[in-house]
Write a structure and sequence with these properties.
This protein has 13 helices and 13 strands. By secondary structure, it is α+β, with helices and mostly antiparallel strands. The protein has a 5-stranded mixed sheet with strand order 2-1-5-3-4. It has a 5-stranded mixed sheet with strand order 9-8-13-11-12, with helices on both faces. Helix 4 packs across helix 11 and helix 6 runs antiparallel to helix 7.
Length: about 375
């Protein structure tokens, strides 16, 4: 068994690799937007895994500026004909859409013709920031039962936190995020709380009990993509043509210590989170209490923030028809990918949650499922 110091070093290294991780991008200007000959060459850049495509627009526009048509820009990206959702982190998009990792990842950028029927509106960095802060509020609510620590952040701290995410500065992020007092998901299935935070939630006139702790709830976002059931090699998977083929699910994973030590593997967590695909029984309807939405206090930033959440962060329903249930029973999980890594299913889930989560405290998991076409 590794020494505690070695384990801490490995965890620190994993977190830094997540923050330093990037997807090599080769961005092509769409033919309809080219107004100069010869057409401009593609733009090569690195897209931070924890970053978002709209944040790359300034450097991409500068590269293509001499060939762009006049008028107001409405920038969006596509991959093999599929408009890309701007609020999903770049690394997650890559893991989900490239069954066989494509390097560089060839994307097409459009400056006109925004597909409003497919993509929610994006006003550049402001929209991305609103989406990030709302996700952080949701995650905080899942973990602690309220989102006060985020809601009570000063404007200066919010700006510093967002800038650390944009710049990929882990050290800057740690300085601010520690004030949220979210801590680590503990190995024994409990989230430790500081005495200050405990008193704030209990009320100052209520004494703190020894060893105070609360059940651990891990914010998880799952992206379940269907591929051909008889597919032997994922590199032969057909490109994703529409977002209807992806189930986007917000489903927290809760751990309650029942006595004795707790060791939960990634496989166990996924069986709990996605019983539809890991159980031999009929698809199980997940209790509504697991579908956590941010409370009203977490939606008070602005009307724009509210519209952003409601338009693209809805929880995926889990009820199924008899026909769908029969198909799900025959489904087979072919691949699980987190931060570009195809993880061993025996890895401790809490290690994954602590070290491979994104800056908004969500763990993003891409799952490829082989299912028979109906």
């Amino acid at each position: 068994m590794a020494a505690p110091h070695d384990e801490a070093a490995w965890s620190e290294e994993a977190v830094r690799r997540v923050w330093d991780g990037a997807v090599p991008l080769q961005v092509h200007l769409h033919d309809a937007d080219v107004t100069a000959l010869p057409p401009p060459p593609p733009f090569l850049t690195l897209g931070p895994r924890i970053g978002y495509l709209p944040l790359l627009i300034p450097v991409i526009k500068a590269h293509f500026s001499s060939a762009l048509p006049p008028g107001v820009d409405t920038v969006w990206f596509e991959y093999k004909g599929l408009p890309l959702k701007w609020y999903v982190p770049i690394g997650v998009l890559f893991d989900l859409l490239c069954a066989d990792p494509e390097r560089p990842w060839n994307l097409i950028v459009h400056f006109r013709g925004y597909p409003a029927e497919i993509l929610s509106p994006c006003e550049g960095e402001d929209s991305v920031k609103w989406s990030y802060m709302n996700s952080l509020k949701e995650a905080t609510f899942i973990i602690t039962g309220n989102s006060k620590s985020v809601m009570n952040m000063s404007q200066a701290d919010q700006v510093a936190l967002w800038e650390s995410v944009m710049k990929g500065s882990l050290d800057g992020y740690k300085k601010i995020s520690t004030r949220l007092k979210l801590g680590l998901f503990e190995e024994d299935g409990l989230v430790r709380m500081s005495s200050v935070e405990r008193q704030r939630q209990q009320g100052f006139d209520e004494p703190e009990s020894p060893g105070s702790s609360k059940p651990c709830r891990v914010p998880v976002r799952l992206y379940v993509r269907n591929v051909q059931e008889d597919l032997e090699d994922l590199e032969d998977a057909a490109p994703l043509r529409d977002w209807e083929s992806v189930s986007y699910i917000n489903r927290p994973f809760e751990i309650r210590k029942a006595g004795g030590s707790s060791y939960i593997t990634l496989e166990h967590a996924l069986k709990t989170l996605l019983p539809e695909f890991f159980s031999s029984k009929s698809a199980v309807r997940v209790d509504d209490s697991q579908h956590v939405r941010a409370p009203d206090s977490a939606r008070d930033d602005s009307d724009a923030a509210n519209s952003t959440r409601s338009s693209h962060e809805e929880v995926e329903p889990t009820s199924t028809s008899l026909q769908e249930t029969d198909a799900l029973k025959k489904a087979k999980v072919k691949l699980v990918r987190v931060q570009g890594i195809e993880l061993d299913m025996d890895i401790p889930f809490l290690w994954v949650a602590n070290n491979l989560k994104n800056p908004e405290y969500y763990l993003h998991i891409c799952v490829y499922v082989g299912a028979r076409k109906q």
